[in-house]
Design a protein that fits this description.
homodimer; 446 residues; alpha/beta; FAD/NAD(P)-binding domain; 2 domains; five-stranded parallel beta sheet; 26 strands; globular; membrane (chains A, B)
Chain lengths: 446, 446
């Protein structure tokens, strides 16, 4: 058994400058990749041993892709980098005064520190929702949703109680951002093309998919055109869209909205908000709205040699007064740009401010139903946007292998309308649901 | 939340004969498939919602294949069968007197009952081994091993204690049957081709792979030629093979063998034996060595209308006095054969005794290293046996999709020596290891 006093980070001493990166998401991973041939030691901390391609996480949640298809282990990704060190460990705090990072198993001095810890689900302080809702930010969470969806249909098949069955067949998705829209569209396509054949004993006209959004439009970060198109696509697929509706409470059985309306459901997917995954030790005056204020070279306000990139960073600019959108592109670009600036600093050359190159945004509702906002006020929809979505996502997927698997899965689905992988590998079991616990037993042979 | 009094099996009443199958492994699945166009109602019970291709389970455990690649959901498999009903539920007992099966959520009368519940790990009553060893019979167990292996290397990277590091790098596999041989060979290939690049900070000459076997040969069920070849292949790959060696105890830290020798290891993989996954209600006089005695048409000894097929069935014949081997082929053939006999019984025609058509046995050690015993006393090894192994396993893999994914994974590995999927999706955590628990935290962002 492990004992703390026998553990240490075991990072070799070096005379080279040491760059410590906290978090290997789009920002941290691209920074580390861009530092490959720079004469620095790179140390990457992450609590997972893989980089996930989060834009496709909803596919894992709706049984379209294997979890492994959207993830790439850091060890493999960086196995040809010299003086690169990955440690799968949580960072507890940073201390800019002593230039030290404190992890569960020891401290490490840095020359440059980059906080790329991303975002986490925001439950707005509602502990009951946090306990019962299904967030969708990590692979284990996506697998929980996959198990939950399939278990709902299995359980609906064995209940005699119509109210219970209805509650098992009601799916409520909080938040009409890309995650919520993609989840809802994907579920609606399952209902149309897959589930009736799988569960001939169930009446799928009873299955309801709700998307509820506090703001007045679908896809709030995108254009009005895109939002309206996406809403129409969702409604064409039979999804019930409720705008200007906020979730007030959820006890695992009933969602109550502000205003009093209630829906009985066993499944509330939480895509209603994120907040920065902060780390202790960042001065309070450097924080705003749960994110870290940075200057135009991503340096944390008030600190030297500490940087923040990606979702956790809040860079106020004229064009982006609320910061850059919390999607992959700003993180990727900031990671690559910071690598260049670090090299400039090492050579005592002047740094260059970050400028976000907005390539546009895409969201998918279903097959042949996607929306795109492109630079130059161009708005696409339908099949063309869908092809663009497919192309962009395959293009950016990390690593040759993932691309091949995802591509073959997609081609297969394209021709057959089948979903890949409707397996309940680890049943999702609420600890307080004793019966589900017993019925969905695992690990032992029947 | 589910309540028992609101649940029922919800199997529609029918005037057709009802065939109830317990377990959807090779036997049960093939029986159900073969009954497709027979005028019966088929009810399949299984505690998993998928059929697994168990001969490739070791690949999941050693990060070579995704779990989803070797499994196919029953719902999908049978979505075009009429009057077929799958229920994901455990069978508690059977009552031949009333022709009833009792599950957690209700009883069901049968006209014909087929027990195809397979086998489970046999710890020979040693509770300590059962608690600490890693069995390899189910997909969650394989994923536990995958997580454990990768966590061992991560943890070996952060310990300063040489004894702890050695114990993390020692892997002991109990049992030199096909599972043990395949696990050991696969681990040895990882050590050779993958791990040194992934973990440049570790010295892999310290990594030891032991296979211990109580009998005097490797691959006891196969020919002496095959066993000797497999042993040589293993030793060529640097695996330490210990024959005539029985595990006496394992406390999670130290394996002690009968005779007193000890090896410190964090990982004992248990492939040392299986026993029938029995169900309450089978008369004691119908059991022998943990299996169900059946007559030549797989009817359970002493019962009418109750059959047992596959690993759980013990059919004594002149050629197979100890029963058929516990592999896929007898189960598949018995499933198909029983379907034919059921049709004959329905038409009041005489049944025909089962005859096992032995197609031979195969086991794989690594790339270009496999052994085959073919009918006619033919023994193959090396590249030819390996090609045969590849061909047979792809051929029998269930479902078009799995075949494509597995095939593309294999082709990829063939050309790159890469393993697919070295992800710790759900860390394996011993409840009593508090530090590992904290370090391998999951689900939250770094």
């Amino acid at each position: 058994m492990l004992q703390y006093d026998k553990l240490s980070l075991n990072i070799p001493d070096t005379t080279k400058p040491r760059v410590v990166i906290i978090g290997g998401g789009f920002g941290g991973m691209n920074l580390a990749k861009s530092l490959r041939d720079t004469d620095v030691q790179v140390v990457l901390f992450d609590r997972q041993n893989y980089n996930g391609f989060w834009p496709l996480l909803y596919q894992v949640a709706t049984a379209g892709l294997e979890a492994d298809s959207i993830a790439e282990p850091f060890r493999k990704m960086f196995d040809d980098h010299k003086d690169f060190h990955f440690r799968m460990v949580r960072v507890n705090k940073i201390d800019p005064a002593t230039k030290t990072v404190t992890t569960l198993i020891g401290d490490l001095r840095y020359d440059y520190l980059v906080i790329a810890s991303g975002s986490k689900s925001n439950f707005f302080g509602n502990e009951q929702i946090q306990k019962y809702a299904f967030p969708l930010k990590t692979i284990p969470e996506a697998l929980n949703i996959r198990s939950q969806l399939l278990q709902c249909f299995e359980q609906a098949s064995i209940t005699r109680d119509p109210a219970e069955r209805q509650s098992l067949l009601n799916f409520v998705i909080a938040g009409a951002g890309p995650t919520g829209v993609e989840m809802a569209g994907s579920l609606a396509e399952m209902r149309k093309h897959v589930l009736p054949a799988d569960y001939p004993g169930l009446d799928f006209s009873q299955m309801n998919i709700y998307v509820v959004e506090g703001l007045s439009k679908v896809l709030p970060p995108m254009s009005d055109e895109a939002g309206q198109k996406a809403q129409r696509y969702l409604e064409d697929l039979g999804v019930i869209v409720k705008l200007n509706t906020l979730v007030d409470s959820y006890d695992g059985e009933t969602v109550t909205f502000k205003g009093g309306e209630q829906i009985k459901t066993q499944t509330l997917v939480w895509g209603a908000g994120v907040t920065g995954a902060l780390i202790d030790g960042i001065p309070a005056e450097s924080l705003e709205r749960g994110r870290i204020l940075v200057d135009p070279i991503n340096r944390v306000q008030g600190l030297t040699d500490v940087f923040a990139i990606g979702d956790i960073a809040f860079m106020k600019t004229e064009k982006w007064p609320k910061g850059h959108p919390g999607v992959a592109q700003p993180a990727i670009q900031q990671g690559n740009h910071l690598a260049k600036n670090l090299r400039r600093m090492l050579k005592n050359e002047p740094t260059e401010p970050f400028e976000y190159f907005d390539k546009g945004s895409l969201a998918i509702v279903g097959r042949s139903r996607a929306v795109a906002d492109l630079p130059g006020n161009i708005h696409l929809g339908g099949f063309i946007a869908w092809m663009a979505w497919l192309f962009v996502h395959i293009w950016y997927l990390v690593g040759f292998r993932s691309k091949l698997i995802v591509f073959s899965n997609w081609m297969y689905r394209l021709f057959t309308y089948q979903r890949g992988t409707r397996l309940i590998i680890r049943p999702f079991i609420r600890k307080d649901d004793k019966v589900a616990n017993e019925i969905m037993l695992k690990n032992e042979v029947a």
